[in-house]
Amino acid sequence: MPPLVADLIEPELDAVTAEILATIARQVPEYARPLEGSFGRGIRTGVGEALRQFVALIRDPEAGRGVGRDVYVGLGRGELQQGRTLDSLQAAYRVGARVAWRRLSRVGREAGLDAETLSLLAEAIFAYIDELSADSVEGYAEAQSDLEGERRRRDRELATLMVREPAAEQADLRAAAQRAGRSVPRSAAALACPEGRLGELARLLPTEALTAALEGVGCVLMPDPEGPGRTAILERAARDVTVALGPCGAADELPASWSLARVALRAAEAGALPAAGLLRVEEHLGELLLFEGGALAERIATRRLAPFDSLTEKARERMRETALAYLGHGGNSVAMAAALHVHPQTARNRMARLRELLGEQLDDPDARFELQIALWHRAPSGG
């Protein structure tokens, strides 16, 4: 564009600024208030700086906008901070572009600019407004990201306090909850899931569920998980991901709930529990005891099941099944036969062989208890 265009429109900037501000106040409801305080300064600065930058770019298109774009990034951030969407600011930009084109095109015609130059001026105005708008979108997105990061930090701070052992002081909990814009629930349960799946799980849960990544594990603190409709929500959210649900209790019981939920998740990842869907810790306490005490259970199994060592693998498996059935049914051959899917006489034959191998262990209550632990520990995964 010819640099003389800048000379023509520069004297009009004050009048154009005033008209743009007046038109915005009439046509954009959210801005229909006195241009006072930081709000007024922001709008006035935005309009005035936009026009000055536009003239400067006509004179030197290669100069770029430099720090001037920060004004429009800041306007975008300000809209989020005021709790508004970008709709009002975008509407103001459109109003500004129309007013500027109407005033400046009249000045150009009066100065005898040809149609091609006027066309370039129109194109430049609306392209420039698109740039300002894009700057504000960027600022709005940055502010959203900052806000989300701060929200996540405060949620993580609160979740860390709620599951901390020893339990945090109530005053500290209340203060952290206030900073996070939340309340400490009367009853809740902790859920554990893989950290990488926490985001998708959180999107399917109620907004009052507190989510945070803690030490590489996805943590969800779910208020009143046994309330109306909560079971269906949890099962639906956990349809495609392993989620371990700890026991529900008062807020001061959350550390224990979180500890058990993490153990259950580790057990699922190790193949000791089902590896998908919602795992209720209360339904798997025996498996978790064996999983956590694996080293002790292995020592018990080595000692109590030593008589099986001389058997073939197939025979060992058969004797382990027989021993579990014997302990589970108190030595009742008919019940054992049904459990093992064999003839009662076959069950009696197996019992005789089992007694040859284990002898007095089958009659000692303490030995039977350890045998049960050993057999569960040595059972195939999922058995």
Detailed description of the structure:
- The protein is α+β, with helices and mostly antiparallel strands and 383 residues long.
- It folds into three domains: 4-147, Globin-like; 186-292, Alpha-Beta Plaits; 294-378, Arc Repressor Mutant, subunit A.
- It is 63% helix and 8% strand.
- The protein contains 16 helices and six strands.
- The chain has helices at 4-9, 13-27, 37-59, 70-81, 87-110, 115-162, 170-179, 198-203, 230-237, 254-269, 285-292, 294-304, 313-328, 333-340, 344-358, 365-378; strands at residues 187-194, 210-214, 217-223, 242-245, 249-250, 277-280.
- Strands 1, 2, 3, 4, 5 and 6 form a six-stranded mixed β-sheet that branches.
- The radius of gyration is 36 Å and the shape is rod-shaped.
- The mean pLDDT is 89.
The profile of the biggest β sheet is: 6 strands, mixed
**What is the rounded Rg?**
36 Å
For this structure, the CATH topology of the largest domain is Globin-like
How many DSSP helices?
Answer: 16
| Mean of all residue-level pLDDT scores | 89
Number of beta-strand segments: 6
Helix amount:
55-70%
CATH class of the largest domain reads Mainly Alpha
Morphology call: rod-shaped
Question: Class by helix and strand content?
Answer: alpha+beta
Order of helical and strand elements: HHHHHHHEHEEHEEHEHHHHHH
* Total number of domains: 3
Distance separating the two termini: 81 Å
Strand content: 5-15%
